[in-house]
Amino acid sequence: MKNIVLIIAFALLSVSLQAQKFQKIDKSVVDIAYYPAEAPIRIFKKNATKRAALEPKIRVIYSRPLKKGRTIFGELLKFNEPWRIGANESTEVLFMTDVTFGDTLVKAGRYSLIIIPTETEWTLKLNTDLDGWGNYSYDPSKDIASITAPIQKSKKEIEALSIALYENSENIIHLKIGWDKTIAEFPIRINE
Asked: What is the dihedral of CA 116, 117, 123, 126, to 10 degrees?
């Protein structure tokens, strides 16, 4: 009797496991940018003070599409139209502390990021609509803050969309976005 119950349980488990399918590998890999950049590996620091200094304050999760010989700005991404900053899911930022974004005080929390590019500048918008796909769920009425910054031309072509966070001056963190031959940096003040 015991063997029959085990055989039935195994058969049911096998059917259940076969019903689960894994997603195929996406062409645009998901990546994460942290401030401070070494936040994910802070556990390897030998003393508590160094580990505490690396506690994350900002995290950005985004997909990294490739240029693949295409003209990105003005063609693939139309000027004056919202862009999710990446591919697939909307790009998301998590502030672990209150920040000043542009002229707006923003509470710690999770937000989506949208850019509206022009030929000379980008406007980065912070939006409360989460877990969207592309720009399809973007609702401008849910924008809570924005920063406009001039673009800079890169000397080298940036094949994969890239985002970095670094301290430009005390408590001023720059969110740097680059793709193709275009870079823009947005200052965010950490309010501690």
From this structure: 40
Residue 80 CA: distances (Å) to CA of 74, 83, 124, 168: 9, 9, 12, 28
Round to whole Å and give the CA distance between 147 and 30.
24
- If one counts every other C-beta atom within 10 angstroms of the C-beta of residue 106, the result is 19
**49 three-state secondary structure:** helix
Give per-residue pLDDT as tens, 85-96: 999 889 999 999
CA geometry: angle at 29 spanning 111 and 141, to 5°? 25
Task: For residue range 66-87, list pLDDT tens digits in order.
Answer: 999 999 999 999 999 999 999 9
Cβ proximity of 73 and 161 under 8 Å: no
Query: 105 pairs with which residues across the strands?
Result: 100
**Is the bond preceding 36 in cis, omega lying within 30 degrees of 0?**
yes
